[in-house]
Amino acid sequence: MTSLSQSGALAAWQFLALAILVAGAASIAAFLARKHLANDAGPSGGADGAFWDAFAGLAVIVPAVVVASFTWAWAGLALTVLAAGAALAAFAAAPRLLRRQENRRAGRTTQIMNEAAAVRHKEALARWQRYELDPGYSIDYPAMSDPRQPETAALIRAIKAAGRPGGGTDPASADPAYASAVDRLEQALAAAERAAGVSPAGLSGPDRAHS
């Protein structure tokens, strides 16, 4: 009686292991098939990848179902139903999971771009502030502080649009428009400097000699 009980317990553990194997193989195969159908270039490329995903999944599922059927006929049917349910659930959930992965990748890319943009933002603001704070620059290039000048007015608008330098926990670090705003700020600053008559030699730094 004890040996039968032990044999039944072993069979239950075997069935559980096969169930985990079948459900995992079906889920992974269905997820990868949906991913190939969504991402691969052209319907033929996606269908080809999905076919091999399904083939790999069946290569695991079918032997497990056959082995279980030899032990207990209903076990094979139960594993088949389990595999079908797991595959359908994974296939249906795949688009949401893929979008979440894509959003995470896009968020990381945006943060990296914005961290680099924040450095350029600070440099552009420091460059502009010379015309406000350095007496020599203020005298040589008064148009840079005159909002009546169209280019200077556009620069002021670009500064406001870019906000404060992003990065770290700043909201701009997650704003996909931040890097573009910094690009426009740099372009507006260069245009204002050209309109004010700033020569390349005039951009050498605040330590230059003023007459």
In DSSP terms (H or I, runs of 4 or more residues), the helix count works out at: 6
Task: Determine the N-to-C terminus distance.
Answer: 108 Å
- Count of folded domains: 2
What is the average of the pLDDT values? 80
How much helical structure, as a percent, in the residues? over 70%
Give the radius of gyration.
Answer: 32 Å
Strand content: under 5%
Low-confidence stretches: 1-10, 205-211
What structural category arises from helix and sheet content?
mainly alpha
The shape is rod-shaped
The helix/strand order is: HHHHHH
Query: Total number of β-strand segments?
Result: 0
Largest sheet: none
What features would you describe in this structure?
The chain is mostly helical. It has two domains: 2-105; 112-203, no CATH class. It is built from six helices and no strands. The protein is rod-shaped, with a radius of gyration of 32 Å. The relative contact order is 0.09. Residues 1-10 and 205-211 have low confidence and may be disordered.
Q: What is the secondary structure topology, with strand pairs?
A:
Elements: H1 2-39, H2 42-71, H3 73-133, H4 135-140, H5 150-162, H6 178-196
Compose a concise summary of this entry.
Helices cover 79% and strands 0% of the residues.
Keyword list:
single chain; 211 residues; 6 helices; disordered C terminus
